[in-house]
Every structure is written in structure tokens, then in C-alpha cells.
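User: Design a sequence. Structure:
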């Protein structure tokens, strides 16, 4: 009954027919994210200078690991603290030519405390490194993706200049001595 009048039978089937005509997508459809990309935690790489200016290296984050390709690294359980400083010309923070990231950690070679230095000349590159480092430090059981579809690839977005090194395109690296740079 609608407003005191009985409904006609044809009108009750119309909404059902309309719903059947719509394309059906499972779960969230287009919003479904390829969860296999998140296996092993967040992944990213950052080109930096290690220890001194012009000593090029690639720093990688993958799950609980942070390492310098071809050299070694640490697990998040070894991390102690991060200190950041920068050198700027004049009073303008936009004219910063060097960004210094000091990582203090426990060595796995005994109870020694060690420190690593990662330098950046680009403010944008150091900001992406800082973001990846914060994400890596605060990891929990719940994975927080840094992969963005379909446009930006997050910290590794290099407009095609990454030479096929997007960490989400390949299986996780298990050997720290493996190098992807020349």
C-alpha cells in the first residue's frame, strides 16, 4: 500500500530489474588494492651520499630492514635514534644545500653503539627519506603502504628515470650485498 492505494505488481519488480542490469563487482570493485604489494611491509629506495659528500649509495627500506646496497644494514630492533641537521645560506630555509641524517644504532657485532651518516643535497629527496625513515621506525603489525596507484609511485616516483628499480615491481630483496646500481 502506498498512500492508502495498493501498489501495482509491475512497480515492485522494476527496482529489482534495475539492480540486475547494473554491472556487479566483487567487494569494493575498482577500489580493491592489490594486497600482495604490501607483503613484507613498506619498501622504498633513496639515492644519497653515505658518510661524506659525493660518496654515492642507495639506501633501501624493506619491512623491518634498512640497508645500504652492497654494504650492510640494520633491523628496526637495532635502531636507537635519528638526528637531522642542515646547512642553509643566509636566513632562508629554502637555500639549504646540505641535509645530514645521523642514524644511531646498536651494532650486531657486540654491544657497540654506532652511527651512520646519510647526506642529501636535494630538499625534496631528503624529505622523502625522512618520511620513509619515520614510517620504517614506527612500523607495526599493520602495514602502512607507501605505494600510490595509479599516478604517483610515492618516494620512488622518478617519472620513468628509476631504470626499472621500483621496489614494488620485484620480489623482496633477501641479500643485502645485492646491488641495483652501478
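Assistant: Done.
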Amino acid at each position: 500500500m502506498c498512500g492508502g492505494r495498493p501498489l501495482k505488481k509491475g512497480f515492485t519488480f522494476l527496482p529489482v530489474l534495475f539492480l540486475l542490469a547494473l554491472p556487479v563487482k566483487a567487494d569494493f570493485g575498482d577500489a580493491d588494492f592489490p594486497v600482495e604489494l604490501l607483503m613484507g611491509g613498506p619498501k622504498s629506495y633513496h639515492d644519497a651520499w653515505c658518510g661524506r659528500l659525493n660518496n654515492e649509495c642507495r639506501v633501501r627500506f624493506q619491512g623491518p630492514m634498512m640497508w645500504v646496497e652492497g654494504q650492510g644494514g640494520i633491523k628496526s630492533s637495532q635502531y636507537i635514534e635519528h638526528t637531522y641537521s642542515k646547512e642553509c645560506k643566509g636566513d632562508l630555509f629554502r637555500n639549504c644545500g646540505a641535509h645530514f641524517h645521523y642514524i644511531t644504532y646498536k651494532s650486531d657485532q657486540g654491544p657497540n653503539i654506532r652511527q651512520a651518516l646519510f647526506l642529501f643535497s636535494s630538499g625534496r629527496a631528503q624529505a622523502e627519506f625522512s618520511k620513509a625513515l619515520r614510517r620504517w621506525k614506527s612500523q607495526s603489525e599493520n602495514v602502512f603502504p607507501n605505494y600510490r596507484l595509479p599516478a604517483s609511485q610515492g618516494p620512488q616516483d622518478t617519472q620513468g628515470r628509476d631504470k626499472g628499480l621500483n621496489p614494488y615491481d620485484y620480489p623482496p630483496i633477501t641479500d643485502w650485498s645485492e646491488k641495483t646500481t652501478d
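Residues 106 and 178 are 23 Å apart (CA to CA). The mean pLDDT is 74.
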